[in-house]
Specification:
The complex is a heterodimer of chains A (414) and B (250). With 414 residues, chain A is an alpha+beta fold. Chain A contains 13 helices and 10 strands. In chain A, strands 1-4-5-8 form a 4-stranded mixed sheet. In chain A, strands 2-3-7-6 form a 4-stranded antiparallel sheet, with no helix packed on it. In chain A, strands 9-10 form a two-stranded antiparallel ribbon. In chain A, helix 3 runs antiparallel to helix 10. Chain B has a single domain, classed as 3-Layer(aba) Sandwich (Rossmann fold). Chain B contains 6 helices and 13 strands. Chain B is globular. Classes of the chains: A alpha+beta (414), B alpha/beta (250). At the A-B interface, helix 1 of A face helix 2 and helix 5 of B.
Chain lengths: 414, 250
């Protein structure tokens, strides 16, 4: 109960889960518990000590999705997304910000594995492998909107404002990207930009690999977020940023190609969210079986037991949907896009309720910063918004289910 | 030099185990299982000796149920080269395991056999010693440090009140104590690679042995629950109770 059923996992998946859990219990949870103030350190680089990422390296969890030839982890492809879900849940059970730092690497590594020409893989995978602090980021969202404005309105009016033009053997990028996971810390960025303004964005958006030290790229700030604070979300500005022509990843059809990233991304998002829920449950179950009120331990008060049962039920329901959706992606099922968005939005709302119960059942302690439940509550809350809001996710579900009606572009607002 | 390491599948020491309702044994149906922590230390030591170029091959062996293949896979993911499961559903008592291991040693001809000093489930602390007796090899138990030099191995043992350094001639048996090393995690890439390493399954009868249960468990009891504390009204009462009830003051 509460955790994934061992019978549903392969031997390798169980061993991986065990290694991740051991790392979280030995290194991550003790750090978070005794350094809760670090989350509020206003120099973002200081928040998570280097030793945590170095520790993550000992279980090899930073380089999932990198082909084995480059020293990465070659998961079984037919269950790859399910394995991503399992591992991201375990890491997020320790800290969802750390999990987010790591999963961005997996998601971008899959893109590079699938779409980057060999010379780029040869150049960047070894650098990624060599440095435990090397992080990747995926730059899509812009100040003027993201999926709410773009998808599936495949018309020139909805195109990205960031533009790239080929000039003298270089792509020259101009524009801004915001709300970028790992944006503040990453060493290498995948950047999306408009390369043909006469067509819809599915035909006119290209992707590029941009190293952090490229002249013309400026990381302008770290966004201070309510939760998931150990992942440094950043904003980037591109001013005549010149990228060598051979750093083009996908020309014009980059957004279609990114489906690989989006689907795995939604599942991972839901799974990290579930990890936060599991942490809420474990902490709360422990608390109510030890804290005495009115002469008996809390769990013997029926009002407490009912809430705990509700937490467990919601966790199991979220897990069941994540398992179904991840299987759909692994099998390439026609409903996979709908199921991914369902898992993501359902996890965010249900785990928010789980976290609310956790906060309530801890009484006054639940609201105290040093107790750690308040952090889980904030970490759960940000999932409502991260990687698409609840409402945008629901819009996507209906537009995908009813492409001929709900999915039709209604024309620009005047 | 070949090293043989014996590993046992036990209940995870971090989970709370409960007795079966009839008191006949532990209820392990839904309990997470893992490698005996002292055996993990033994595997780690063997892998380090291989990485240092001293050992040429590390073979892990387990006597236990089908699911012990998972324990062996963990050892392979930590860096062992090859696994062997001698399958049995019986309760594995030290003498039976020592007999099987001695037969395996006869086939494998290792220069060094490493074991955990004891398993955390039955806490017998006998298998290594019995194996040494069966094979007639020298033994060093409770090792906190180990150094191999040619055909000699020097071991620092943890003994009551201090440490003892002894030298043994190979082939030898060493059992690992807590401070010998800090075992590594089985990393995700190595777990995938371990899938391709050989893991053989055999029966005790392949060695002409029968694994029998010679011990009868009469009864198991939960430890008594701790009684609640009391509040005393005065220092005088506290002193009185420390004398009469707690017996800590004369």
């Amino acid at each position: 109960m509460i955790h994934a059923d061992d019978g549903s996992l392969s031997q390798e998946q169980r061993l991986m889960r065990d290694s991740c859990r051991a790392f979280v219990d030995d290194a991550v949870t003790p750090f978070i518990r005794s350094n809760w103030q670090r989350e509020w350190d206003m120099s973002p680089g200081e928040r998570l000590p280097r030793s945590i990422l170095e520790g993550a390296e000992t279980i090899g969890v930073r380089t999932l999705g990198v082909p084995e030839a480059y020293g990465g982890v070659d998961l079984e492809r037919e269950t790859e997304v399910r394995t991503f879900a399992l591992i991201s849940e375990e890491i997020a059970r320790g800290d969802s910000g750390l999990a987010d730092k790591l999963v961005q690497n997996w998601k971008v590594s899959i893109l590079l594995r699938e779409f980057a020409p060999k010379h780029l893989q040869d150049k960047w995978f070894p650098r990624l492998l060599a440095d435990p602090q090397f992080l990747l980021a995926h730059c899509l969202t812009e100040p003027r909107g993201a999926s709410d404005r773009w998808l599936p309105y495949n018309v020139p009016e909805a195109a990205m404002h960031t533009k790239a033009v080929l000039k003298d053997g270089h792509w020259v990028i101009n524009g801004r990207k915001q709300f970028i996971s790992n944006g503040f810390d990453a060493s290498l960025y995948v950047v999306y930009a408009n390369t043909d303004s006469s067509v819809g964005m599915l035909q006119g958006t290209s992707s590029f690999l941009v190293p952090r030290d490229t002249p013309g790229l400026t990381v302008t700030k770290c966004n201070e977020t309510m939760g998931c604070r150990f992942m440094n979300n950043g904003e980037l500005v591109f001013e005549d940023c010149r990228v060598p022509a051979d750093h083009l990843l996908v020309q014009n059809t980059a957004l279609g190609s990114a489906g690989q990233y989006f689907r795995a991304g939604k599942i991972i998002q839901a799974a990290k969210n579930l990890g936060v829920g599991v942490a809420c449950f474990e902490r709360t179950a422990d608390y109510v079986q030890n804290y005495v009120q009115g002469g008996r331990i809390l769990i013997k008060h029926q009002a407490v037991a009912l809430r705990l049962a509700d937490m467990a039920t919601r966790i199991e329901a979220v897990r069941a949907l994540i398992e179904r959706a991840s299987r759909a992606v692994d099998e390439g099922h026609p409903d996979m896009d709908v199921l991914c968005n369902m898992a993501k939005v359902y996890a965010s709302e249900e785990i928010m309720k789980v976290a609310t119960h956790a906060l309530e059942l801890h009484g006054g302690n639940g609201a105290m910063l040093e107790f750690g439940i308040e952090k889980l509550f904030r970490d759960a809350a940000i999932f409502l918004h991260m990687d698409a809001t609840v409402d945008v996710s629901r819009m996507k579900i209906i537009k995908t289910m009813f492409p001929a009606t709900a999915g039709k572009y209604a024309g620009p607002e005047n | 030099m070949k090293i043989l390491v014996a590993v046992k599948r036990v209940a995870d020491p971090n989970v709370k185990v409960r007795l079966r309702a009839d008191g006949s044994g532990l209820d392990l149906a839904a309990v997470k299982m893992t490698m005996n922590p002292f055996d993990e230390i033994a595997v780690e030591e063997a892998v380090r000796l291989k990485e240092a170029g001293i050992a040429s091959e590390v073979v892990v062996v387990s006597v236990g149920p089908d699911k012990a293949t998972e324990t062996l896979r963990t050892a392979l993911a930590m860096g062992a080269d090859r696994g062997l499961l001698v399958r049995t559903e019986a309760t594995t008592e030290p003498l039976a395991v020592a007999k099987v291991l001695s037969a395996v040693a006869g086939e494998e001809q290792p220069a060094l056999i490493l074991l955990g000093k004891q398993a955390i489930d039955d806490d017998c602390n006998q298998t290594g010693q019995m194996l040494a007796a069966k094979l007639g090899w020298p033994q060093a138990t409770f090792a906190s440090q180990l150094a191999v030099d040619g055909d000699r191995v020097t071991v620092i043992r943890e003994v009551d009140g201090g440490s003892q350094t002894i030298a043994l001639t190979l082939p030898a048996i060493v059992t690992a104590d807590l401070r010998l090393n800090e075992p590594r995690y089985a990393s995700l890439p190595n777990i995938m690679k371990a899938k391709k390493k050989p893991l053989e399954e055999r029966q005790a009868s392949d060695y002409g042995l029968v694994i029998e249960e010679r011990l009868e468990v009469v009864r198991l009891e939960e430890p008594p629950t701790r009684a609640a504390g009391i509040k005393v009204k005065s220092v005088a009462e506290l002193v009185e109770r420390l004398k009469t009830e707690a017996g800590v003051l004369a």
